[in-house]
Structure formats: C-alpha cells, structure tokens
C-alpha cells in the first residue's frame, strides 16, 4: 500500500495482543477501555504503515473511539422508564379509498397517547403526541410506545406523480420528530413550488424504525439497519400498492445512518436513491447495493461525517463501520453539490442541496450539476499544493 496508507490489520486484546487468536471477554474489554480509552480494545485496529503521520493518528483515534464504544460500553445498566401509550390502531392495508380513515384512526391513537403521557407526567411527549393528533396531520402509521414511530404524509399520496420518502438518521424519535418533519416540509414546499403544471407531489416522512443515538454503540454498527430494512421494504411495497398502476416516480432520500438502512432496502420500486451525509452503506460500491435505482450522494463542506473512518469490520457478531465513502470515486455514485452546510443542513431552504434534491425528485436529473468526487478533489488539492 502507498505511503501513509492503512496496511496492517491486527486485533488487540484487553491488555494487549490477544494470545493465540483468543477472543477477549467482555469483562476484559471493559477493563481495557477504562484504563486505555485510546485503544480499540478487542477490535480490529488499522495501523498506519508510516509512523508519525498526523492524519494516521487522527483516523486511528477516531476508529478506536468508535469501536470501543461499540463493544465495551454497557448497553443497559438499568431498564429505562417507559412512557405509557396505547397499542397502535388496528388498520388494514391502505388503499386510496381507506386513506382518510387510516389517517383519522392514527390521529385518534396519537390523541390517546397524549392523554396517557400527560397523566404519567411526561409533558414533552404529551405535547409531541398532541401535535401529531391535529386534524390537519396525515398519519399513515403511529406507535407512541417506547421512543415512538410515525409515518406522515405531506400532500395527496394517492394522486401523486412524484413521491419522496425521507428516512432519518440517528437521534430521531417522537420527542425530536418536529425537526425531521421540518426537513420534509421544506422539501415538500420546494417541490410544490418547482413542479411543472399538472404534476402532483407528495413527501413521506418515514420514522419507521428505532434510530440509534448519535453517541451510542449502536450508531457504529449495522444492527439497527438490518432490523429496519425489512420494515422499509414492506413500506415501499405498500406504497406501490397504494398508488396502483399509475406508478409514480419514487425517490428514497436517506440521511446519515438512514443511508445504512436504505442500502439494505432499496431494491425494486425505487427510481432514485439519495445518500445524504452518509457514513457509508456497508457496500463497497454503488453497484453492490443491488438496486436498479440511480444512486446519488452528497456531503456538505461543513459536515462532520467527512471525518468518520471508512472501515468495515466483523466484530462480536455484528459489523462495525460502513465501508466506502459514498462521495468517493471508488463508490461510483452520482455526486452532486451540497454547499457549505453541516450535517443537518441538507434541506435548508435556498441551499444547493435542496435545489438538487428537488430536481432529482421531480425527475429533472439533467439539471443536477455533478461535482468531482471527494477523492478527486483531494488529489487535485494535493497537486496544487505541490506546485505552489
């Protein structure tokens, strides 16, 4: 491998190198992390072939922190208090004729969840549930139990010619749902403003899985995504049934950890797959996603995800890390400009990212200005620095 590249892959045990390939125990790993948090205890560790490299030290430190958090932190010291909520409303498979009834049933369920949360003393959750129960909200699904799940529709889904499905990343729950809905609403307004005459649009905010916390072991592994993918696949099939033979154009827009979920669900039935601020998908290349959809990727200049190590390693029954950077040339996605925004700015009104997302969803893909992939930009920057 080249100078400064990552070559040696080795496993460090709880107090150093594991002897004879022995897997260190969870107790030894936790003890190692408490004493040496900078070490990826019990985990594959990528070591730079050139000693003293500052980028190598940074990446190694980030890698160690990610893997140590994934395998060594206690997942549950005590059971968390659960806010009471009713079971989801009993509704059948949605059809154009039953949509209004389903929306009403889920609003009623949200209202009951608000009453139960208020009686329990969870005022924040009660307020969130109450907002979802407003008569203007179109809830295709709602479950107020635990961290909560909700699928909300903006626009006339049954009549839409263009449908965008948004899949969120970490730290999205009923308690933080409003910020996710704000992104969906921003996209919906942009679509309705830019859509050609006679073109109807709809946006679906799909919080159909329990997202990991940004600072948690789960955010570094594929476990949550593997659990969520069957649900997303089922919803996409349901969406096709709901829209019938008219077959609208469907775009799957996936933010952060949501892109790990989408990578496992975007089979047939999706026209465009968009990865926003993605840490990786688990696939080495866009072709490896096994989807007929056009695969797009974008990352804002201020997005901290740029600094996430792009590794993938099997560890203690799960996979840590998500592999190839989706905006790199090696991945092979269509990379479009996202401007200078940070990790949560992809749907900011007036931003280059929202402009390009609107064009993709509307099918105006020729108007999307592609940019150089990240690796090509870095190589060009190094070339300029060499000649200066």
UniProtKB/TrEMBL annotation:
The molecular function terms of the Gene Ontology recorded here are: hydrolase activity
Region Disordered: start-end pairs? 1-27
Domain DUF1023, residue spans: 143-312
Low complexity bias spans? 7-17
What would be one Pfam family of this protein?
A: Abhydrolase_8
- Spell out the Gene3D superfamilies in the cross-references: alpha/beta hydrolase
Query: Which keywords does the record carry?
Result: Hydrolase
Supply the InterPro entries for this chain.
Answer: AB_hydrolase_fold, DUF1023
Q: Does the keyword Hydrolase belong to this entry?
A: yes
The name of this protein is Alpha/beta hydrolase family protein
The taxonomy runs: Bacteria, Bacillati, Actinomycetota, Actinomycetes, Kitasatosporales
